[in-house]
Amino acid sequence: MQEGIGYSIVAGAPLVIVNVMRVGPSTGRPTVPSQGDVMQARWGTHGDHPAIVLAASNVADMYRLTVAAVRFAQRFRTVVTLLADEVVGHMREKLLA
After folding, report:
1. C-beta separation of 21 from 85 below 8 A
2. CA torsion, ordered 11, 12, 14, 15, to nearest 10 deg
3. CA 47 to each of CA 41, 44, 53, 61, 96: distance values in angstroms, whole numbers, following the listed order
4. N or C: which end of the chain has fewer CB within 10 A?
5. pTM of the model
């Protein structure tokens, strides 16, 4: 599925990808946290291009980095990947505005 990301970069289309990483169902441990997609997020597409990859460590980071990812994608006309692991994906917190 990396071809679509490469095409978005070549076309200059702003795109935000949110990737909540987990080990995966094929391992028999579908709800175990993992950070296995970090290398794929940075170097997964074909070609030599800069990549913007952000990683959240808690719910507040996820909120702030989502807003930042949209701004980066629009400003630089590129793909921005937002990473979080399974623990952050299942967390809930109150955010104070």
Report:
1. yes
2. 40
3. 13, 9, 16, 30, 41
4. C
5. 0.80
